[in-house]
Description:
- The chain is α+β, with helices and mostly antiparallel strands.
- The protein contains two helices and four strands.
- Strands 2-3-1-4 form a four-stranded antiparallel β-sheet, with helices on one face.
Amino acid sequence: MIILLYFDWNGSRRELKEWNDKLTESCENTGIKSMGLYGSMNEKWNYVCMFETESYDKFLEMCRNVGRPPRMPHHISEILIPQRL
Length: 85
């Protein structure tokens, strides 16, 4: 499954990079594939991170290792589940 994490960021680029580095390390420790940090095409959100994981529980475990920084006032997760038609 693919999980998208949309979020706003009101800190510096350096702080964003530090948080992203911690997130990437947590992904490696929990077996989640980080697919990168992107600028969001949606006007409501500043950025989006993409992850590939086996379950939402693993994603939550990874997030608990990092925590939400104070520079991230809003965020939302979107789960993309493959469908067979």
